[in-house]
Amino acid sequence: MNVLLGISGGIAAYKTPELVRRLRERGAEVQIVMTSSAEEFVTETALQAVSGRPIRSNLWDKEAEAAMSHIELARWADVLLIAPATAEIMARLASGAASDLLTTICLATRAPIAIAPAMNHVMWANPAVQKNRETLAERGIHILGPDSGSQACGETGEGRMLDPDEIAAIVSGLQVDAGATALLACKTVLITAGPTREPIDPVRFITNRSSGKMGYAIAAAAQQQGAQVVLISGPVAITAPRGVIVHEVQTAQEMYDTTHVHIRNADIFIATAAVADYRPVAVAAHKIKKNEQSMSIELVRTPDILTSVAALESGPFTVGFAAETENLREYALGKLRRKNLDMIVANLVGAGCGFDRDDNAVEVFWQGGEQAFATDSKVELARRIVKLVAERCAIT
Ligand code: CTP
Questions:
Q1: Measured from the CA of 319, which atom of ligand 1 is nearest?
Q2: What is the separation of C-alpha 47 from the centre of its chain, rounded to a whole number of angstroms?
Q3: What is the pLDDT of residues 88-119, one digit of tens each?
């Protein structure tokens, strides 16, 4: 794959030699185009050494243009990635400017474009930047991240560039043919999956039998439909598809917190996780000894992630899962209404069906409609569910 890597002028540019190496390890050829301000943060020499190709930065460099013009560069790229993407480059892309080599190539390419924003968290939250993010996402530009955490400016918040490894994984997974028939092109899908673990003491916890297989299959299906997929996963024994961003969590509270860090960028939220409804009130600091003949553990409710997302103002299209042992239809419709969901996928669990198996049968309900999918592999069911979600999401 030919990756044209645009580097704009933010402090996260110091991570780009690492990003180039990660991309090349995945077999990509990397051609770098820097903006003039990027040169303040990372040297051409370092980038040339790791990419093995001369760096381009000037639209008016006659010699370089004669060797490979900006139009040829735009055609050469299978994917155009801008990392880090500053507020400035996002604004220029949103306005359609062609004021330098990188923005000109962005206008001239037919390749999918992905950007990895990186900036101070207050800048990222600024309505002007968010408007530009929306504009770019609507045009089909993949927005990778940003991540949350401590920032170069000493503050903490959302605005860190995604880890180079994650960016490389996503870029490798991008469809080379911008996904003309992909139902979820330019959509971001946030998925919770797997069980949660609620600690009792340092060696014990409360959990359930969820394997995460359904959620991971949904993640793969959404990615195949061209979506950028973020998976927030409890402890499972399976690996996520390449290109999916995974955030590993343990407890319901961690799953809730991580969901709310990423929900603003999501167009669709699919809650497949089997979240523990209760957790121990107190976690013992040391292993609990068996002294008495009986003991009890006081439990308290965990936050309901799905309900909290469905209650967000202008939140994403929200899909819940209901695992029931009886009265499937009645309970599922009750949850659809009570949790104010756009859709609910219900399945029977118990002896011989549901948890920790490779197949399943589901019934899907939404306001004024329903569809049943007979027993099939979770992979095939996930494809059908994702297709249905994409269709309903496009209508509502
Ligand atoms: N869910 C969630 N957060 C929780 C509990 C559940 O996001 N703390 C989500 C699950 O991921 C699933 C849906 O809610 O998509 C259904 O969960 P369930 O626990 O079955 O629903 P309840 O309304 O709690 O019903 P009940 O416990 O009575 O079955």
A1: 15
A2: 28
A3: 999 999 999 999 999 999 999 988 899 999 99
- CB atoms inside a 10 Å sphere around CB 157: 18
Can you give the CATH number for the domain in which 105 is found?
A: 3.40.50.1950
| Residues 172 and 243 grouped into a single domain | no
| Ligand 1 binding pocket includes 275 (Cβ within 6 Å) | yes
**What is the rounded CA–CA span in Å between residue 259 and residue 268?**
12
pLDDT tens-digit series, residues 178-235 = 444 678 987 999 999 999 999 999 999 999 999 999 999 999 999 888 898 999 999 9
15 and 129, same domain (yes or no): yes
The first and second tokens of residue 27, run together, are 């077999």
C-alpha of residue 307 to centroid of ligand 1, in Å: 9
pTM over 0.90: no
Given 121, 149, 179, the domain boundary residue is: 179
CB atoms within 10 A of CB 280: 17
| Residue (of 128, 150, 151, 143) closest to 265 by Cα position | 143
